[in-house]
Every structure is written in C-alpha cells, then in structure tokens.
Specification:
By secondary structure, the protein is mostly helical. The protein is 54% helix and 0% strand. It is built from 6 helices and no strands.
Length: 139
Amino acid sequence: MADADLPARVTRVRGALAAAGVNLEELGAAPEPAWFTHLRNGHRLPLGPAELKETADHLPGIAVEAVLSGEACTRLLSHIEVLTTLRELKNGGLDFRFCHGGLPEDAARVRSLADYVRDQVAAAANGDDDAAASPGNAA
C-alpha cells in the first residue's frame, strides 16, 4: 500500500542522489508516475506490479523497498550521505577503505574518522610521535 508520504520520500531520494552527483535522467529515469498526484492528495493506493515498476523506473538503480517506509528511506538517505562524504574526502586526498565492504552508519562518523586521520598525520609531520600514538587522540 502506498501512503501519502511516498512521493515526498522519492523526491528526497532523488534530491540526495542529485546532490551526490548522480544524474538520474542519464540513467534513463522515467517521469514521475501520474498516480503520485493521488497520493499527494492524501489518498492511499495499492501497489501492484505496474505501480512498483513505474516507481522503480523513476528511481533507476534504487530498490523500491527503500522508499516504501520512512525508516527504510532514512537508511537509504544516510547511506547516500556516507557515500557522498567518502567521495568528497577522496577528492580532498583521503581515500578510506572499509573491511568487508561495510560502511559506517552515518556521515558524521566518517567525518570524525577523517578528522582523526588528519590530526594524526599533522602530529606525525610535526614530529610529535607521542601525540600521534596517544590513545587519547582516538576518534
């Protein structure tokens, strides 16, 4: 069942992807499904195979399940933010790799790790071996 918040969740995901540099139109994204208007007017609609396909076509590469609930959408948006942060850090010279392909849960944790690494590099460059090795400097 599609609720009235589905179009807003889809819009937030599309916005986050655009902010991350993803061009959905280049990926062949279909226009917004016409039945989203009914949802915006407060109606709930059953999601059959056709509606699921139209939603998937509007969000190429994103599992439709990720926008069907607020909780799932929040997890997806957080994941997109983490990936965006990692790309920004890589562009700035920090290329993080995580074991077994896992990612931190939120971008704040990634930024905190980046700050820690920068502090350690700066301490080492200044010859402050004690500060760089001190466990009190851990993030």
